[in-house]
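To: structure subgroup
Subject: Chain for Friday's discussion

All,

I'm putting the inputs and outputs inline so they're searchable in the archive.
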Amino acid sequence: MEEKRSLAQQYIDGLRNAYLRAGDLSAEEWIHFEGVKQGISAADEMALLKKYPEMPASLVELLEFADGTYWRQYGEEKIAFYFLGSDVDEGEYPYYLYSAAQLIEDDDMDYGDNFADLFEWYRDEMEAAGTDIFVDPRIRQDGSRCDWLCFSDCMNNGGTSRLFIDFTPAKGGRKGQIIRYLHDPDRLDVIADSFDEYLMMLMDKNYAFIQPEFF
């Protein structure tokens, strides 16, 4: 009997098929990527799980397939490869996957404080115009108590949008929910209750972020 594929494996298989059917250039992009990428090392995986014991198993499995696609050095080549998406532009906006090293490094950045400072500044600037920044009520706004893990930057290198796993939600939120930051106007939204739900959203959208014009 055929072994049931994990959600992460289903996502990877679907991603491969989406690239191959999107056109000659996107198919070439996938074939090249699959030929140079490497999975996370056993040592890095152990270090990552030690630092993030609540890291979703599906995210670890994606890293076992490819240890990052965000300007990731594989041998003599640096790869920038669209691996994820979100709900922006009906799901047609692509994102990169952080490597284990980037995930560990980003642990030293307090995104809660950074975004809390941004909101405070933005609210002061926009007060005269009668507008305000939006923060999903399921997201804690007390920066000193926020524990987020940034796992993805968008095709604009994070300048437009980034994705986070939120381990310290506000009342009404869920631990492990996925936060999407979007710039101009700046806002934070919960786009999925878990990383698995997030992957299923991308699959349900048929990997809409793979657009021929991006290749």
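Points worth raising on Friday:
Residues 111-126 form the longest helix (16 residues).
The longest strand covers residues 148-153.

D.
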